[in-house]
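pasting for the record
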Amino acid sequence: MGRAGGVILEGRDIGTVVFPDADVKFYLDADAEERARRRTEELVKKGVKVTFQETLEDVIRRDRNDMTRAISPLRKAKDAVVIDSTHLSVEEVVEKMIQIIQQKGN
């Protein structure tokens, strides 16, 4: 899968382990506080009782665990384009990605 191109995949090690030779790679990031705010909002909408502080601690713990794990630790691929989504909507992130992909295609 993916060898012939034409696929879009996401995951914490897609560009570094699974498809290190992908044509375009993105590393999406956002402040831990913003990610916790988004996650808290998402969970509350689902009816989960959670506090922002609990969610923030979970986000920070997950980041630390993912970055320090022995097998396939979270890291940015050397050739990945970094997009900080802290102050961007989903639509704005997608638009940035499309622009970058189109630029690489020229």
